[in-house]
Amino acid sequence: MLPSIEEYINYLAVERGLSENTLEAYARDLTQFAEFAAKSVRGSDEPQDDDILMAGQSTAASFIASTIESGGSPASAARRLTSLRTYYRFQLSEGYIDKDPTANLESPRQPERLPDVLTVEEMERLLSSAPGYDPQSLRDRAMLELLYASGLRVTELISLATDDVNLELGYVRCVGKGNRERIVPVGEQAIEAVERYLAFGRRELAGASEDNYLFITNRGTAMTRQAFWKMLKRRALEVGISSDITPHTIRHSFATHLLENGADLRSVQELLGHADIRTTQVYTHLTQVKLQEVYNRHHPRALKEGDAQRCEH
Fold first, then answer.
1. In angstroms, rounded to a whole number, what is the distance separating the alpha carbons of residues 20 and 122?
2. Structural domains in the chain (count)
3. What residues form DSSP beta bridges with 171?
4. Catalytic residue among 16, 99, 177, 219
5. What residue numbers bound the domain in which 34 lies?
6. Structural domain includes residue 77
7. What is the pLDDT of residues 108-157, one digit of tens each?
8. 262-271 long-range contacts, CB within 8 A, separation 24+
9. Do residues 222 and 89 make contact, with C-beta atoms less than 8 angstroms apart?
10. Residue pLDDT, tens place only, 53-104
11. Is-catalytic flag, 42?
12. Residues 125 and 71 in one domain
């Protein structure tokens, strides 16, 4: 590894505490760029520190473009640009260079990926996947009902304390991203599921544990994200939902179903705890797609004549 790259990776490890996988990704991207710069500028297969430190904007832009040209995805190209940009900002702050060659480069445009959602019917099946009255089933049903009723992030759900849920008034209090607290109303079915869990399930699961977490494991400890995800996938398979479901799928479904039933975007933003309404606007694309499908199915002049005939067959 070139000295400047090694110094930068050490800085990321010590000062920023990045994971081993992230450090390896940064090192790989920067090493590949150094090799690219050496070939482009000097025609050499042996990169030197000067090749990457003194590379210009055109060399950096060509490297990013080569990612796409060689079959890489826009996401890979964007990640590479991030690796270069953070590296050069570090070198600039340390006084090793006087100009950042990536300063005016734009990140490759990535196709917008709409979040996966469950239909209302699939959601109903999932919520009915824990019909028993044993402590585990009562807990699983309460967690699923509360997650769908509130749209919480999974970290917010498993972090709830018992006194964060006001069953009498029908709301939960959670702390989300940026340490922002919000109050989210929940419906009667979720309230009833949590009440049953507290009355007949949690005490048995807790045993002698004094943890104040609302949802706990069979060992009496706080539920983890991994444990909840594993439970969710198992319950989904039990009712025939084989898609790659995640806790965020429930959150996406919560938002989409609200908008489909007439909720305004600003209210959904508040419920989800989004700081920027542009984050929430992705759900309007989902509802627009569904409206287009409904229109195409039911309006007599929505499809061309040939398309209509094919639909009839």
1. 38
2. 2
3. 166, 185
4. 177
5. 3-93
6. yes
7. 775 556 668 899 999 999 999 999 999 999 999 999 999 999 999 999 99
8. 270/182, 271/150, 271/151, 271/184
9. no
10. 988 999 999 999 998 888 888 888 889 999 999 999 999 999 999 999 998 8
11. no
12. no
The one catalytic residue among 196, 202, 235, 251: 251
Domain termination residue (choose one: 243, 271, 301)? 243
Catalytic annotation on 177? yes
Active site residue 283: yes
Given the residues 153, 196, 235, 252, select the one marked as catalytic: 153
208-217 per-residue burial string, b: 16 or more CB within 10 A, e: under 16: eeeeebbbbb
Which residue among the candidates 87, 88, 213, 283 is catalytic per the annotation?
Answer: 283
Active site residue 80: no
- Residues 135 and 212 occupy one common structural domain: yes
| Catalytic hit among 79, 182, 233, 274 | 274
299 is catalytic: no
Whether residue 220 lies inside any domain: the answer is yes
- By C-alpha distance, which of 204, 198, 206, 200 is closest to 222? 206
Active site includes 297?
no
Location of structure tokens 């989409």 = 256
Asked if 161 and 213 count as a contact pair (C-beta separation under 8 A), the reply is yes
The single-letter code of the amino acid at 107 is S
- Those residues whose C-beta lies under 8 Å from the C-beta of residue 145, and which sit 6 or more positions away, are 127, 189, 190, 193, 194
Of 227, 243, 259, which closes a domain?
Answer: 243
